[in-house]
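Structure first, sequence second, as always.
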């Protein structure tokens, strides 16, 4: 005799036992849970378009959020670079002038070397060498700001590094002026050989920190620093040349 395969708890039409409400609702609840689970799995497959070996998935919703965040940033960076591009003509003039004046300084030093004044080797590192450094810094800034940067950040980092190095060098020059005995500096010498160069390099360094929040003001700061260094170098070159000429004449007499 074959045993019956119908489960004990299965209700059949011939079963005289009444059907309770919980027994009727249970299949519907299980079906609703299965539908919800399938819907969740489908959404997971839909939005997990990018997966990585470690199990991390990147959804399209997160990509949308990233793109929504990057759009204003890209617009801001493009505006910053357009402001930097507006300074091209300015740095062409500054760079050309600085390069020409560096060449003239070599000519002047060659002429002075024929009849060097007394103790010129002691005063040279304090008064002559910084002039070349200031001209070279103006030329370097003109070259750095003509590089086709993709954003303002590397440009600001480059001129900020130049500014920090310039501040350190200005302090070294001030110490050299104080310790040398070949020439007694006056207020004008302290102003153009120590204070103004230090101010220009400080402005250059501080402008790097303001480049992201105040790009326009930072670019004006860099331009002012480059122009200051150029005119400081012109003044110091003329001052040194006239000193060597007149001091050599008085020595011959």
């Amino acid at each position: 005799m074959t045993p019956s395969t119908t489960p004990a708890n299965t209700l059949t039409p011939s079963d005289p036992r009444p059907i309770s409400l919980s027994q009727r609702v249970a299949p519907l609840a299980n079906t609703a849970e299965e539908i919800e689970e399938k819907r969740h799995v489908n959404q997971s497959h839909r939005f997990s378009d990018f997966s990585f070996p470690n199990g991390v998935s990147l959804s399209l919703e997160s990509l949308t959020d990233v793109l929504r965040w990057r759009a204003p940033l890209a617009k801001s960076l493009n505006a910053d670079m357009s402001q930097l591009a507006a300074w091209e003509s300015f740095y062409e003039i500054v760079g050309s002038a600085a390069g020409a004046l560096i060449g003239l300084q070599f000519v002047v030093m060659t002429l002075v070397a024929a009849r060097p004044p007394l103790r010129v080797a002691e005063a040279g590192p304090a008064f002559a060498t910084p002039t070349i450094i200031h001209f070279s810094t103006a030329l370097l800034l003109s070259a750095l700001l003509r590089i086709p940067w993709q954003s303002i950040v590397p440009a600001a980092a480059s001129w900020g590094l130049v500014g920090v190095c310039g501040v350190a060098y200005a302090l070294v020059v001030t110490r050299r002026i104080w310790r040398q005995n070949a020439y007694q500096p006056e207020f004008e010498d302290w102003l153009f050989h120590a204070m103004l160069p230090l101010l220009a390099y400080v402005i250059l360094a501080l402008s790097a920190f303001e480049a992201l929040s105040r790009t326009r003001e930072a670019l004006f700061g860099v331009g002012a620093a480059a122009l200051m260094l150029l005119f400081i170098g012109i003044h110091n070159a003329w001052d040194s040349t006239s000193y060597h000429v007149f001091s050599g004449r008085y020595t011959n007499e």
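Margin note: The longest strand covers residues 50-51.
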